[in-house]
Amino acid sequence: MEALQHQQVRVKVGQYAKNGRTDCGDSYYMLATDDYFLCVLADGLGSGRYAREASKAVCDTVEKNPDEDVDRLMEMCNKSLLKKRGAAVAIVKITFDTKEVIYSCVGNIRFYFYSENGKLTYPLPVTGYLSGRPQVYKTQNFRYEEGSSFLFHSDGLQITRVRPLLQGGKSLEYISSYLHSIVSDADDTTFLIGRLP
Fold it and tell me: Distance between CA 58 and CA 73 in Å, rounded?
């Protein structure tokens, strides 16, 4: 299980291929600098090699252009999928100085943001997927408080009650272990659980 440790953000990641296959159709990329945390999660349509190729093209695009804003990154990711299978794509950028979360998603990737005051934010995605064709994007911005937690996951993970999982100061290790325990091998699955100290 991969982990990211930074002064401003900590993240634990779990990724699982459908039916124990070699190629997972999900890909992700994350980066923490002194100024921001950037993460993209892409779920290639279907599963296997071609789904992986599509999702990896998205993540490669973000990795090469981390300083672009979220709207521009979504446009660039869409272009990267021309003549590929297509993918559901979500991008979040968290700026530490302004304590702002900028989020955009097309497709069935879930993102939950929980503040220590008990507020759970669940930005609604645009339905569909990126494929290189013209696409409408909806970017959402909101402020956060220190100590907030977030959960990002592809549609392979089925969670019915997110708030109890994120509240009560549970450790990232506890939450990631629980998420690992409920993963089914019926679909490619990726989750990222993070905290802003």
Answer: 9
Phi/psi region, residue 19 (left: phi>0; alpha: psi -120 to 50; beta: rest), is: left
Cβ pair 41, 152 in contact under 8 A: yes
**pLDDT for residue 160:** 85
At 126 the pLDDT is: 93
- Amino acid letter for position 18: K
Mapping DSSP to helix (H, G, I), strand (E, B) and coil, where does residue 26 land?
strand
Q: What is the pTM of this model?
A: 0.96
> How far is Cα 73 from Cα 29, in angstroms, rounded to an integer?
13
- Give, for 3, the enclosing helix (H) or strand (E): strand 3-5
Residue written as token pair 């408080």: 145
Burial of residue 132 (number of CB atoms within 10 Å: 0-12, 13-18, 19+): middle
Percent of the chain residues past pLDDT 70, beyond the cut: 99
User: What whole-number distance in Å separates Cα of residue 134 and Cα of residue 5?
Assistant: 37
Length of the chain (residues): 197
Amino acid at the residue 56: K
